Amino acid sequence: MIKSPWRGDFPIINNTQCESPYIYLDSAATAQTPASVIERMQHFYLNEYATVHRGVHRLSSEATDNMEQTRQDVADFIQAKSREQIVFTKGTTEAINLVANTFLPTFTQSGDEIIITDMEHHANIVPWQLLSERLGLTIKVWAMTSDGELLLDDLQALLSPRTKLVALTHISNVLGCINPIKKATSIAHQYGAVVLIDGAQGVMHQAVNVSDVGCDFYAFSGHKLYGPTGVGVLYMAKKWADTLPPWEGGGAMIDHVQLPMGTSYQAAPWRFEAGTPNIAGILGLGEAIKYVNHIGIDAISQYEEELMLYAEEKLQNLDSLNVYGNSDKRVGLISFNLGVHHAYDVGSFLDRYNVAIRTGHHCAMPLLARLEQTAVCRASFALYSDSQDVDVLVDRLNYIKKLLG
Ligand code: PMP
């Protein structure tokens, strides 16, 4: 039996309102929140509430200090060299849109190229498409192999002096594979292309060192890292922090405003953070990072690896279950279909038996097209998941199989 020593930290997982316990296997969509994170945000509203960067009064300056300390904690967590390289956003999606809307209009010309893979989440496809249409850029697709692998030779073959940006996911939200982000970055840099890594599925499963990877941008969301929704992070290499123009205008991002023109802007990262930020969310993210650090990301990786091996073995033994992706490289999740049965049917039945999985295209339609599927089931795990969750899933899948024939 693989039991999580941290399960008790999550109030919703231990919620006893259901007749039989609810099995939450949708952590790749959003991870549950530990009590300490919820309490931190509540504490802010109960005792510390004020906005940042504005007032000279004590509450405001304390909120500012706490937010800026969180920026430092985020920088340390992903091993960025300075907190000035950490921009707070609403999430991964906004972080990628920020890069698309600042880097591309400033540093590309019509006819230039962007490379993205066919295993990306829509958040790492559509922003590039929107800007490519506007700026006359060409998108080239780094296609994965039929095993779901991204080969560096294929990237090399696509790169040209016109390639300005390569964007790829650290860990696929459908296949769970870890991509070779460091090597891809180094190859792309040889061609002068910048590299954005979508880390939405990366940061919660293993240690990330952005300085070592050498990427130009790394984006992730708080809510997949045991933090709240509505807050995310964009890491940018110093060169970009110093040179990218602002993208949204408003309060907090300016240095001096005058009419009719001639406004000047703050330095990074504040230049990219117009308006009142999600202060409670940022503090919640900071607390989530403290929580993860307290356990140790390596201990989490090790625990999840053991659980994944167990889950893979159990699920592979279920006949008529088609599992997608390469089992050597799966982290945190397993996608599958049960025989010919539609994923929605399987997911709906599982829900009736108190098991939550994700079904559908997982915001990765091009990847689903490669799998020749319109929908797949995905069971995903976090540090609070355990082998009993897997046993219940497998038991219910067996039952559904009998039921549906
Ligand atoms: N990229 C990947 C790989 C994801 O899994 C997700 C979330 N499903 C996103 C981007 C988008 O994250 P968010 O909705 O938090 O902005």
Structure write-up:
By secondary structure, the chain is α/β, with parallel strands linked by helices. 39% of the residues lie in helices and 16% in strands. The strands form four sheets. It has a seven-stranded mixed sheet with strand order 2-8-7-6-5-3-4, sandwiched between helices. The protein has a four-stranded antiparallel sheet with strand order 11-12-15-14, covered by helices on one side. Helix 7 links the parallel strand 6 and strand 7 (217-221). The mean pLDDT is 96. The site of 4'-deoxy-4'-aminopyridoxal-5'-phosphate has 13 residues, from helix 3.
What labels would you give this structure?
about 400 residues; alpha/beta; Aspartate Aminotransferase, domain 1; Aspartate Aminotransferase, domain 2; 2 domains; 7-stranded mixed β-sheet; 4-stranded antiparallel β-sheet; 13 helices; about 40% helix; binds 4'-deoxy-4'-aminopyridoxal-5'-phosphate
Topology (elements, then pairings):
Elements: E1 23-24, H1 35-48, H2 58-77, E2 86-89, H3 92-107, E3 113-117, H4 126-135, E4 138-142, H5 152-158, E5 163-169, H6 181-190, E6 194-198, H7 210-213, E7 217-221, E8 232-236, H8 238-243, E9 254-256, E10 264-265, H9 279-295, H10 297-316, E11 321-324, E12 333-338, H11 343-352, E13 355-356, E14 358-360, H12 365-370, E15 376-380, H13 387-404
Parallel strand pairs: 1-13, 3-4, 3-5, 5-6, 6-7
Antiparallel strand pairs: 2-8, 7-8, 9-10, 11-12, 12-15, 14-15
Helix pairs in contact: 1-9, 2-9, 3-4, 10-13
The protein binds 4'-deoxy-4'-aminopyridoxal-5'-phosphate.
